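Bench log, entry 3. Co-assembly request; chain sequences pasted below exactly as received.
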Amino acid sequence: MEQEVIVEQKDFVEQEDFVIQMRGISKVYPNGIAANKDVDFILRRGEIHAIMGENGAGKSTLMKILFGLEQPTSGEILINGEPVAITSPSKAISLGIGMVHQHFMLVPSLTVAENIVLGMAPTTKSRVLVDFKKAVQIAEENAARYNLRIDPNAKVMDIPVGMKQKVEILKALVRGAKILILDEPTAVLTTQETSELFKELIALKDQGFTIVFISHKLKEIKQITDRLTIMRGGRSMGVYNTADISESEISRLMVGRDVVLKVVKGKSQPTDTVLKVRDLEYTNRWNKKMLDKLSFSVRKGEILGIAGVEGNGQRELVEMLFNLNVPDAGTVTVCGESIIKLSQDKIRNRGVSLVPEDRMTYGIADIASIEENVISDRFSNKRFNKGPLFNMREIHHESNNLIVDYRILAKSAKQQVKMLSGGNIQKVVVARELSSQPTLLIADQPTRGIDVGATEFIRNQIVDLSRGGTAVLLVSADLNEVIELSDSLIVMYGGKIVAYFEDSSQLDDVTMGEYMLGLKHQTEEEIAKVCYE
Amino acid sequence: MSDKNLFLFNILRGLAAILLALAVAAVFIFISSDEPLTALKYLLLGPVVSFKSTGNVFNTTSFLTILAAMIPTIFSGLAVCVMFSANQFNLGGEGAIMLGGFVGALLGIYLKMNTGLHQVVCVLGGALAGGLIMLIPAILKVKLGASEMVTSLMMNYVVMFVILHFLNFVFADRSKGATQTFPFQETAKIPEIIANGTKLTWGFVVALIFVVIIALFMYRTKWGYAIRMIGINQSFAQYSGMQVGTVIILSQVIGGMLSGMGGSIEVLGRFGTFLWRELPGYGWLGITIAILAKNNPIFVPFAAFFIAYLNKGCNLMATYSDVPSEMIDIIQAAIFLFFAAEQFLAKYRQRIVVHNTQRDLAVQEAAASQGGSNS
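Structure output for the full assembly:
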């Protein structure tokens, strides 16, 4: 008997070290994508543990399983050595697991304090009405305790991204989370905000919290984490002590080859102005000025990049350029003709093409076939019609050519688009938008969330197109992409252009960060150069 | 291969839903009836079998009446397919059918023409009326954003009472005891394929021709393509440069025309005069049929047959046993539930998907290890 007890105790001691063990986790999504394949993931109490991998490596899926958002197809999860079934996020929260999503889950029209206590709001004596004072008090107490500076009375839509993230972290902490999962927390932050976040995370770690940090940024990982798990193609490539592994080794494990995402491109030879945007203004329905007297031009044969933290007017600008929204004032012309309020087919007829930011909403019809998706802008073309009927042979011909030219990995042209991987879905969109030989291509986050191979391919296609004489407007939150791919570059902050760089090749992310955060801005004269007048 | 498995799964799932629905019906029959086996016999076999002391024989006449009952529901099923494919939940089929029938009837009474041409003019008139009336919910939707579901549903009753007004006060044949119009001219009546009283008219052939036409329209023309894309993702369609508003109106007008056509063919084929005093109910059946057919025109005749068969079975069951004919509503409701439930048998579907994926992965890896390339 005594022996048994000792053994049990020893087990207990060993397992206490591991706050979470995920063993043999596999996940196949209903569309057939195997996102996790037999993954082991072990978390020690009080560590900052990175999960690294490219987009699509299965990091987010693994964490969604841990947070109860997805159920594993097979495998087991142990918390403090006890097997558990995490069937829902509320179960995960009750087990002390909190998650901060990449895209914030906040109610923009409510205050910070209201968001923090949402769903567990303190009530007044009547037990019916929400006690707002108490809510603010809870928010302030917790903010002070964890040293996260917030303004509890501000509305979420008015606060900067960095603060939104703190609100998300506080939301999890107030609900009793001991383990925090941060899904690409720095993706939307500037360099300065990132270092502030890191200080706060280290303070939390010192208070005994365990933090999982999902990222694919090498420098950050080296800076802040204790251990890291590397994932590739849905599999775990092993667990390492951060101190013992070099950046180049991490990179090799992540991508499996030494990828240098340098885009090879000759110098641009810009000629005539194609897109001319002048004094564009737009105030959104919450009375926030999203575009403030925006003026710039894009010329034939060049790529103009727009850098900036998301939410500084880039989305609104793109919407104006494709009549998905109407500006309050200002002009937009393509080759001298105004395109404001023109229907999309007329805009397309002027030779404008758009790779939309949100490919699932605008880019594709998910349950339609690849073939049906690639002809959506040209289906009424004479070439594809024979009398009242479709010319099916021409349509097959066109779609099969595009599948080959744009290296879309699919069983056939009849396959449903939603069955493809993210990268291949994006290739479907790119194939359609680029193959129409546009005079102006607007590429909004063209490689977001897709694998390295597809990213490289799409970037090269964009460069080829521009060197062939197309004017390209590139909007990207990925600093590397926007610097690498653009010939010249503007930075947007608060709906304004705050900087223009005629040659983007010499820029670094620290300088860019300062402009993107609004710490610096160029003079009017410097910025006005982007109008080329 | 894997996609074939999934296709097969979808068909099996449909059959399973139907079987389960019938099982649910059987449970109710066993609970409520003193002679459940007799009731079930008439429900399931009655429509095509005559039970005689000398043995059971195939009942051709009854089978032909089932086919005849499909004529209006094929049209209304096709109408709903087109409208639902564009994601337009227009429930105005009822009104359009009644109006089409009424207009077709009036043309059949008051026009003087040669037979052959006369029927065509009547049916086209009915189709035109159905199409025009659907412009109301369609334009309200596109111009004002009013829900077509609400407006079309309300419109049914407006249409019905307006028709009743004209029937009562303008076109009534005062010499008859019941409210009805004057009889149709012989030149306007749609004849039976074989004159045997089953009411299986040439309308049935026209209905099947329209199944082919609408299938071609939906899958082989630019308009059908635009309708389907708008139904799948309207934002995508707009961004792609499609005329979203126009196509939304078009889909509902076509739905109205098909309904009106079905109404006029039914009236001119089945009756000698216009008798409908209320909404005929074919519009609702059309919704059931379109859901069973998954909005695919090719499946519409099969779904229409199934529904007509069940209806007949329920009527026979009510006649020859103690189960009321309202049982049909319970069966239909159960089929709806199982068909509409996306998650029904989802676990088995997931198992097929997992299996396929694992096999694909194994093949990929084998290829990779042999070729030494990483895909």
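The CA atoms of residues 179 and 431 of chain A lie 43 Å apart. The longest strand of chain A covers residues 18-28.
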